[in-house]
Design goal:
mainly alpha
Length: about 70
């Protein structure tokens, strides 16, 4: 309908950004040890999800190449 043609979704960029966000959350948690336990668990869970997505995307990119 809009006629964009072939557009590839930037999964590699998303994987690198997820890795950077996960690292930022870990550094933030290390610097702010006075956060309440619930906030620490939520932030830790966010970091785990970010690292998991980054690992999936980047490992898939290395194994299958740039076209998959």
């Amino acid at each position: 309908m809009l006629g964009f043609g072939r557009v590839r979704f930037p999964f590699t960029f998303m994987g690198v950004m997820a890795l950077a966000i996960g690292l930022w959350v870990v550094v933030y948690l290390a610097a702010h040890r006075s956060l309440d336990p619930v906030a620490q668990e939520l932030a830790g869970g966010t970091a785990v999800v970010c690292f998991g997505f980054a690992a999936y995307v980047l490992i898939r990119r290395v194994r299958r190449g740039p076209q998959h």
